[in-house]
Specification:
alpha/beta, five-stranded antiparallel β-sheet, 38% helix
Length: 462
């Protein structure tokens, strides 16, 4: 079928979408009176809809994914060439791009050793949870099976990932959940849980709260701690200094596996290859998905140390000793083929350095907006992953109405800039504007994005 569509063809696409597509994160009642937006083309940092309207995409595909921007012919060509040669084989055997991307990936991850392929961030995290449970069964008599997760963090859409997720509105209506997932406090200093400390001392105190949960549950029952390096959909939370070193110390003290969920931060989003590398953390598991191939093909990875991998090796012919798991589409070759080119682009174009420079500019512009607009209570971020929390009162930190935060997003869209906002995650607190433009962003792009936010804040709040 020819997808180079005419205006009449696009009209049919809109009607077909309304009639047949069940969209993500959308209440479809609205489509009884308005048309869904259809994105038909992208180039660099810009996309065009079915009406021909151009937008700057400040959220990399709306879900923090298209790290190297749209229209990368070399990635498309690499995928085409690979799938014509060999498109798929089950992961029980190897493929050329699977082996080569694992090798290249691990060069960027000192201390990590093995890559397990699947096709979404949720699935990558589910694999890690299963590995923890099987390690408990094989090496700890089934006792060390609890998995700790942090308030406000998000790890995916499966029932187990929701059980291990700290966003109550995402979890609502999907229980009952499997047992053995235990929540620890968040580390957002702006919304303090301990008033007597600040800065690095606050970071250490937030980490100490994890130890308190471990001691309450019993260290011999806790198998792993799963954390985002920077909390994403829970409000773009950069942990305070002092937090990560203390977390690492606690995990080693109690023989707890540290699982870092890099589904959002991985492959350059924070200005390093992985978010955890900003703090010198040495994890046991690292999961990743979105930016691994910048959305050009589906791929996710569960990466482990050799120590973890060795826990599943057994010379005896025990049919229960190995990791008895499969991801059908983890055997697709398009993902690692795209990922190899994606990584090469990041290296060749110096996009990690650009991310840091443009992230600094973005944070500076957001700070200026905070000075100008009283409704901006806090700005925070790392690299090109930034947020601005909107409040009705800076003294009390009362959030603005969620409808007003959404109105800012809609007004930015009307001005030709697509931004995000925390969405159906935190009851009454979905008021943080989210920004994650592609790593190719220019100073002009950054200024245009924040100019649109400036205008939108003025229109919505005066």
């Amino acid at each position: 079928m020819n997808l180079d569509l005419t205006k009449n063809d696009l009209s049919h696409v809109v009607e077909a979408d309304k009639a047949h597509v069940w969209h993500h994160l959308v209440q479809h009642k609205q489509f009884e009176t308005v048309d869904p937006k259809i994105i038909v083309e992208g180039k660099g940092l810009r996309v065009w809809d079915a009406a021909g309207r151009e937008y700057i995409d400040a959220v990399s595909g709306a879900v923090w994914t298209v790290n190297v921007g749209y229209g990368r012919a070399r990635i498309a060509d690499a995928v085409r060439d690979q799938i014509l040669r060999m498109n798929f084989f089950a992961g029980a055997m190897g493929t050329v791009p699977g082996a080569l991307f694992a090798e290249r990936l691990l060069e960027k991850m000192p201390g990590m050793s093995r890559v397990y392929y699947s096709n979404s961030g949720s699935e990558a995290n589910e694999k890690a949870f299963k590995m923890v449970r099987q390690i408990s069964a094989r090496h700890y008599g089934g006792k060390k099976q609890k998995i700790l997760y942090r308030d406000r963090d998000y790890h995916g859409t499966t029932i187990a990932c929701l059980a291990g997720g700290g966003q109550d509105e995402r979890n609502a209506q999907y229980g009952p959940f499997p047992e053995g997932f235990v929540r620890v406090p968040h580390c957002l200093e702006y919304r303090k849980q301990w008033d007597d400390v600040s800065g690095a001392a606050y970071g250490r105190r937030a980490a100490d709260a994890i130890e308190e949960v471990i001691l309450r549950e019993g260290p011999d029952t806790v198998g792993a701690l799963c954390l985002e390096p920077v909390t994403a959909g829970g409000g773009v939370i950069v942990p305070p200094e002092g937090y990560w070193p203390r977390v690492q110390e606690i995990c080693r003290k109690y023989d707890i596996l540290l699982h870092i969920d890099e589904v959002v931060c991985g492959l350059g989003r924070t200005g390093t290859w992985f978010g955890y590398q900003n703090w010198g953390v040495e994890p046991d598991f690292v999961t990743m998905a979105k930016g691994v191939a910048s959305g050009y093909a589906a791929i996710s990875c569960t990466v482990t140390t050799e120590k973890v991998f060795e826990m599943f090796k057994d010379d005896a012919e025990d049919p229960m000793s190995y990791f008895r798991d499969i991801s059908t589409f983890g055997g697709c070759t398009a993902g690692p083929a795209a990922a190899l080119e994606n990584m090469a682009i990041i290296e060749e174009e110096g996009l990690l350095d650009n991310c840091l420079a443009m992230g600094e500019r973005l944070m500076g512009n957001l700070a200026a907006l905070k000075e100008k607009h009283a409704v901006v209570g806090d700005v925070r971020g790392k690299g090109l992953f930034c947020g601005a929390e909107l409040v009705a009162d800076r003294e009390t930190k009362e959030p603005v109405a969620e409808a007003d935060a959404k109105a800012v997003v809609a007004e930015c869209m009307a001005r030709g800039v697509i931004i995000g906002v925390t969405n159906r995650s935190l009851p009454g607190m979905n008021t943080t504007l989210c920004l994650s433009p592609a790593l190719i962003a220019t100073p002009q792009d950054i200024d245009a994005i924040t100019a649109a936010i400036d205008g939108a804040l003025t229109k919505v709040f005066g």
